Structure formats: C-alpha cells, structure tokens
C-alpha cells in the first residue's frame, strides 16, 4: 500500500521517459458508493504502474464545510464509514519528478447533474491510465439518474390537526433520514399576520395562540450546501376548496423519498 505522508519526498526511480508526454482531460461518471478499498487499489496501481511509485495526496471536502487535508488510506476509510452522508468532494493528485501527473476530482453531490468525476492526466501512456480509472470506478451514465422531485398532495382535517404530532414527525424525519438538520417553519394567519424562520420551540408556542385563525403553516428542512429540500405545507383555508397539505421533497434518493412519505402517512394517519 502506498504511503501518503505529505512530508516525505516523492519517490522517483530516476528513469526518464523516452516517449513524449501529452495531457488529456476527461469527465466521467463514477459510482458514489464505491468502496474506499477500491479507490485505494486504484491509486496503488496507478502509482506503481505509471507514476514511479509517487505519493498520492487526498483532500476531502464535506457538506458541513470541513476540509480534511493529506488523508491517508485509513483516514479515507474512516470518513467513508463514519461520515458517509457528509462527503461532498474528494480531490486526488500525484506527480513525478519527470513530469508525469494525475489529478482527479470526485463529486458526491447528491443532486449533481451530468458527470460527477473529472480527471486530468499528463503521461506518455495517458490513454491506458484513463482506461484504468474507468475500469475501477467508472459506471455507465444511465446508472446515475437523479430522481425527480417528489410532490404529493393530500387532504387533512383542521379540527384534528395536532402541532405536537407535526413536531414529533419532523423530529423523527430529521433524526432518521435527514442528518439531524433542524426544521424551520412559516405561519400566516387570516388577519395577515405572518411569522418566518420559526424554530420548533417557537412554533409550538405561536401556533396555539392563533388556533382557528391559521391560514398557512409550512415546515421544512434544507441542506444549504447541496440544495436538498423537504417541505410540508398545510393550507387551512384554501380558496374555494377543502383544506389540503402538500409534500415537496428533493433529496436525490428515491428510497429516502418513499420512506419519508410512508412515515408521514403513518404519523398523520392518512
């Protein structure tokens, strides 16, 4: 296994390639669920086969704004195991003293459209090196289809509506599915009063004081860095129709969409 110690000089056999080098760049689709062992195996093969055993440097950016520099393979495996839902961007690069270069960017953005991998190679065997990257972590584009935004609408009874049930529901959604991100609520009344950016604590105290006068109540969770959203809106007095609620969810995971929708139906007894 290669050693990614950034303070050690890069190894070079001293061999100078007689063939001219050229640079190519390529975008590709990679499997975001690829095992870290597979990544490490790829880097080992690239290093030993094409880069005179040069050190690979790894840097990781997470969705909560942390940057992890000079990761070694064990640290990468740790991040995959314990912070898998926080991975956003992985940067990998290595170079040799005689000008060979590999630079990769792997995106774990859950809503990213198009190719999520990028590689730049300078080598006299760039095509072979690129093929190795594709063979280890590449997938066909059709396997990376981002699900459409989920929207569901359903009727509810304002007389039996419970703010305590809604609070409990969002606590469970946040804890079990959406990374414990706290929800934020909005409330408007028939007399045109409105409250924005409400925490769960504030909503539980404001709602009872306007009971019977609430026009719209919405509560949602947003992951700012990735743009993932969940919103549940209740229209208590919609114009010329019965009270209706709307669920909108765009989290980039069809199974999670379905699981959250199932939980909402269960908790609200739909």
Entry summary:
The protein contains six helices and twelve strands. The chain has 270 residues and is α+β, with helices and mostly antiparallel strands. Strand 10 (214-223) and strand 11 form a beta hairpin.
Architecture overview:
Strand 2 and strand 3 form a beta hairpin. Helices cover 28% and strands 30% of the residues. With 270 residues, the protein is of the alpha+beta class. The N and C termini lie far apart (55 Å). Helix 4 (163-176) runs antiparallel to helix 6. It has 6 helices and 12 strands.
Overall strand count = 12
Radius of gyration: 25 Å
Number of distinct helices: 6
Helix content: 25-40%
Shape: elongated
**Spatial strand sequence of the major β-sheet:** 1-6-5-4-2-3
Report the sheet with the most strands, covering strand number, pairing sense and barrel closure. Answer: 6 strands, antiparallel
What is the end-to-end distance?
55 Å
Low-confidence parts, pLDDT < 50 over ≥5 residues?
1-17
Class computed from helices, strands and strand pairing: alpha+beta
SSE order, one letter for each helix or strand: EHEEHEEEHEHEEHEEEH
Compute the average pLDDT: 87
Query: How much of the sequence is in beta strands?
Result: 25-35%
